[in-house]
Every structure is written in C-alpha cells, then in structure tokens.
TrEMBL record:
Its cofactor is FAD. Gene3D superfamilies: 3.30.465.10, 3.30.70.2190, 3.30.70.2740, Uridine Diphospho-n-acetylenolpyruvylglucosamine Reductase, domain 2, Vanillyl-alcohol Oxidase, Chain A, domain 4. It comes from Cephalotus follicularis (Albany pitcher plant). InterPro entries: FAD-bd_oxidored_4_C (IPR004113), FAD-bd_PCMH (IPR016166), FAD-bd_PCMH-like_sf (IPR036318), FAD-bd_PCMH_sub1 (IPR016167), FAD-bd_PCMH_sub2 (IPR016169), FAD-linked_Oxase-like_C (IPR016164), FAD-oxidored/transferase_4 (IPR051264), Oxid_FAD_bind_N (IPR006094). Keywords: FAD, Flavoprotein, Oxidoreductase. This is D-2-hydroxyglutarate dehydrogenase.
Length: 563
C-alpha cells in the first residue's frame, strides 16, 4: 500500500498519470490529459496498453528503492505517451502558410531565396537517411542575421512553425520538418569573419561547411577541434546546435569547451549577441551553453567563435586488431597512460562493422591479413616532435603486443595509408546505409559494460538482423546499429525499449552526440529526471513562448511548460 502511495506521489510529481491498485493499471487524470490535448482516443490507448502498464506497475511495486521507483514511474509515463507520440499530430496552434506570408518573405529575402520548387523541397524535407520526411512547402535561405531575425519575428507573430536547418546530416530527424514547418536553411551565411593567429580563435557564420573551415585553418597552420565523417556537408551552426562530438573529442573535448561565443536569434526575432572571444568570462550565467546542443529549439545560431588548436607536425595512425573486447578496454587504459598528451583518437569497430565496410564500400581493403580478429582499434597520435612521438607510439605498440592486448597491427607509413585507415572507420555509417534498413542508437555507457549490450541484443534478435558495435571508445560512446534488409516493426519491438532500458539501468545516456531530435524526444526520461525535463520545458517556454522553433523535437510531447 505504501509503495502504491509512493508510486502515485512520484507519478503525480513527474507526470499526469496515476496508479490504481484495485484496477492494477495506470490511468490519466482527464483534466490534465485534456490540457495536453490528448483526450481523444486516450481511453483506447490505455486499454490497449493495460497489460504492459500493469506489468510495469507490478515491477514498480517490487522495487524497494525510491530512485528506481522513480525511474520506473518515468518509464510508465513514456510507455503511455510514447505510444501516442508515434502518432504525433500537427499542433492546431500553428497557422498554415498564406500568399501574404510568401509575399512578405520575398520582400525581405528576394525571390531567389524563397524556395517553393518541388525538387528542392523534397531534398530539404528529407533527412540524410531517407527515414524522416516532412511536407514543408517553403524553404527560406537568409543571408544575414538581420534576415534570420526578420523571418523569426514574422513567423512568431503569425504562429508559423520553423525548422532550422544546416547541412541536414543529422541522424535523429532533428533537421527536417515533421509536418509543414517553414525550413530556414542558413547555408548562405558562410563567411569567415575573423581569425586571430595568436589566440587561434576563429569567428565565422553558422552556414560554413566544416570541411571548408578545416581547409581555411590548414592554410593558417591550425585545425578544427572537431572532426566528423559528415564534414563535407555538415555546417558549423548545426555542429554547435547539436553539440556534435566526433573523432577528436578524446583530445580536444566537447564544443561546450571550444565554443567561446555565439550569436543566436530567438523566436521573437531578438538577436542575442554572445559572440565573445574570451577564454575566461565569469560575468553572470553563461547563456551560450543553452544553444549548444539544444538542436535549434531555443534559437537559431547565426555566428560562432571557436578556439582552434595549432596544427602539429607529427600525426601517426595505427590500425590494430584485438582478440576480445576486454583487450580493447585495456588497450585504451594503456594508451591513455603511455601516450598521454599525444593521443588524439581512439576508435573501435567490431568484426561485423569491418565486414560491412569491406562488402559495401568500393576500394576499401583490410590493411591486416585476413584472420579471425573480433575487434579493430584505430589509434591516432598528434604531437610536435616527429621522432619522439613515433618512438613513443612504437614503444606502446610493442608493449601492448607483448602483453597480448594487440594480436596484429599496422602503422601507417604515409598520409595516404593513414587516410585509408580512417576511411574504414568513417565509412561504417555509409556502408550501413548501403546494406539496407538501419536502426541507430548513439549511447554513452561505462566502457566496461558497453559491448555487453551489443552481445545481448544479438541474442535477442537472433538471425532477423545484424547487430554491430563501433564508435568512440575513448569517449565511452557506442554506436549500436542494427542492420536489416528492410524496416520491420517486429525487429523494432525487440530493440526498443530494451536498448533504452538497458542504457538507463547502467546510468548511460540515450544520446551521446547525435541529439534527441524527433526520434528520441519522448525517450528523454531514460536519461533525465522529470524535474530536469520540467526545467528544460520552462526554459523553452521562456525563450519560445509560442513553441515555433523546431516543434515536436528534443522535449517530450507530454511535458507541458506550465507545470
Ligand atoms: O551512424 C552512426 O551510428 C554514427 C555516425 C557518427 O557519429 C560516427 O561516429 O561515425
Ligand atoms: Zn560518432
């Protein structure tokens, strides 16, 4: 009885759900549900989910610890609302485009930057994987902060929903419309504003393509602190808005550290100038962090200033094979200890990932002789003393071989060989796309546990799909991907919520570096407490009271911002 009360207290606090002991089910308080606009069809949904909810409630009852009780309460909440979210409905609060709207946009942006052409809209409406498709009728291409501000001010007054878009390389459906949101693509805002060679601070517009920044900096003797497989298309504004991690995070940290300032336009058109270039600035709340990783739901990032490291002369890349996952882990520990400051990447892929790349990408070959290796590790070092660095890396490799952590390996002899090793690792997402349907999970997990999930999911899925594990081992970030000939709800039902529950149970994050987007907005409770989500919703309400910015993404659809 006491536990039921406790569960109800938690549920009351965290959601609009109640547990009923006599009926052995959870139900929704109808006043709240109507406030959330969920009345129609909700009775049906609850009936349908009764066995599931009942099961979860019993589990809740058996758990003596409050914390886990709370987590379960959140899960119940997800199960009900998650089901509804699958059928996310266009908010009736948003207007639809009118001829007057188009005329206004043409007046401020010029005809050619107001795009209604079908082919171009198909591209802008569809994500990189072809998995998420919106039906927007309008793509706007502003050329300046002022134009972004005019667009948002107008959209806000007209209650027109907006999806901010950069290179559209995201993997969680965050950068494409869900319905008919106006697409605002900042790709024309691609100027480099300033570069200070002494401090290494770059100031540029949000639409700069990452690879272009890399080339620019290369000429100046610097590098970008982040590097990703999608660098040829992704834009720095999108990288910052999603807090993209990538291949160098182990060395240079996340964008919360390297982004020194930014400019963002709020939903009402107000421009927040936080484009500082200082390493240290403790004057009040550091609001720029709200825009790093909030996926365009709080404002559109228009400019960034970013600290870039100098380009160092000696870069070495080794491609290694390990017998088992435990050796990969130990190798990571050794690498941190023995390579220390020169370690710049520590990536891993399993045998299945390598096979996918070899089978689906042209011109890629395994640099190691064919064998039964289960795991591969790519290590990169970057330093300033060629002979010393090489010596250090060779000594580390020799030692690791002697103690049996590496079963085979090759050290790149030139830049071409180094990039061919990188091509294997960076090619995994492309190979997966070519192989058929893919379910993607981007998880932060304790390194010791990480691969258990891959193995357990393999058992759960049997022969119905291939489960592969790869990613940024140095950052504790697993890319768990399930590859199948086509999308199939039976397969999905075996993966979710299993993967999310497993991650939550091991205190991991259900989004390490890809964001929540549309895919995981309703799953946020697996990684964040109800109180935290409620504060996020309040911030959203403060900065975007009409909810026009990237609706249906990031925050769960069941959380109302007024408590
Ligand atoms: O497609 C994925 O799952 C991961 C993509 C990207 O983050 C990578 O590290 O290659
Ligand atoms: Zn990644």
């Amino acid at each position: 009885m006491e536990k039921w009360r406790a569960a109800n207290r938690l549920l009351k606090y965290s959601s609009k759900l109640r547990c009923d002991r006599r009926l052995n089910l959870c139900y929704v308080n109808s006043i709240h549900s109507s406030a959330l606009g969920l009345t129609r069809g909700f009775g049906e949904t609850c009936k349908q989910f009764q066995p599931l909810i009942f099961r979860d409630c019993s589990k809740t009852l058996q758990e003596p610890v409050d914390r886990s009780l709370f987590r379960d309460a959140c899960r119940i909440q997800y199960r009900c609302f998650g089901f509804l979210a699958k059928e996310v409905k266009r908010s009736p609060l948003f207007s639809t485009l009118s001829a007057d709207d188009i005329s206004y946009f043409k007046r401020i942006l010029g005809e050619k930057n107001v795009i209604m052409d079908e082919d171009r809209l198909v591209t802008a409406n569809t994500d990189w994987m072809g998995k998420y498709k919106g039906s927007s009728k309008l793509l706007l291409q502003p050329s300046s902060t002022k134009e972004v501000s005019q667009i948002l001010k107008y959209c806000n007054s007209r209650r027109l929903a907006v999806v901010p878009q950069g290179g559209n390389t995201g993997l969680v459906g965050g950068s494409v419309p869900v319905f008919d949101e106006v697409i605002v693509n900042v790709g024309l805002m691609n100027n480099i504003i300033a570069f200070d060679k002494v401090s290494g601070i770059l100031v540029c517009e949000a639409g700069c393509i990452l690879e272009n920044l890399v080339s620019f900096l290369d000429n100046q003797g610097f590098i970008m602190p982040l590097d990703l497989g999608a660098k040829g298309s992704c834009q720095i504004g999108g990288n910052v808005s999603t807090n993209a991690g990538g291949l160098r995070l182990v060395r240079y940290g996340s964008l919360h550290g390297s982004v020194l300032g930014l400019e963002a336009v709020l939903a009402n058109g107000e421009v927040l100038d936080m484009l500082g270039t200082l390493r240290k600035d403790n004057t009040g709340y550091d609001l720029k962090h709200l825009f790093i990783g909030s996926e365009g739901s709080l404002g559109i990032v228009t400019k960034v200033s970013i600290l870039t490291p100098p380009k160092l002369s000696s870069v070495n890349v080794a491609f290694l094979a390990c017998r088992d996952y435990s050796s990969c882990q130990k190798l990571l520990q050794e690498a941190k200890r023995r390579l220390g400051e020169i370690l710049s990447a520590f990536e891993f892929l399993d045998e299945e990932s390598l096979n996918l790349v070899l089978n689906h990408l042209e011109g890629v070959r395994n640099p190691l002789p064919p064998s039964m290796h289960k795991f591969y590790v790519l290590i990169e070092t970057t330093g300033s003393d060629e002979s010393n660095d090489k010596e250090k890396l060779e000594a580390f490799l020799l030692h690791s071989m002697e103690i049996g952590l590496i079963s085979d390996g090759v050290l790149a002899q030139d830049i071409n060989q180094a990039s061919s090793f990188w091509h294997i690792r960076e090619g995994v997402p492309e190979a997966l796309m070519k192989a058929g349907a893919v379910y993607k999970y981007d998880l932060s997990l304790p390194v010791q546990k990480m691969y258990d999930l891959v193995e357990e999911l393999r058992i759960a899925l049997g022969h119905s799909a291939k489960v592969i594990g790869y990613g940024h081992l140095g950052d504790g970030n697993l890319h768990l991907n399930v590859s199948a000939p086509q999308y199939d709800d039976m397969i999905l039902a075996k993966i979710e919520p299993y993967v999310y529950e497993w991650t939550s149970k091991h205190h991991g994050s259900i989004s390490a570096e890809h964001g929540l987007g549309l895919m995981k907005a309703n799953k946020i409770f697996y990684s964040k407490s109800a109180e935290t989500v409620q504060v996020m919703a309040s911030i959203k309400k403060l900065l975007d009271p009409n909810g026009i910015l990237n609706p249906y993404k990031v925050l769960p659809h069941c959380v109302s911002s007024d408590g």
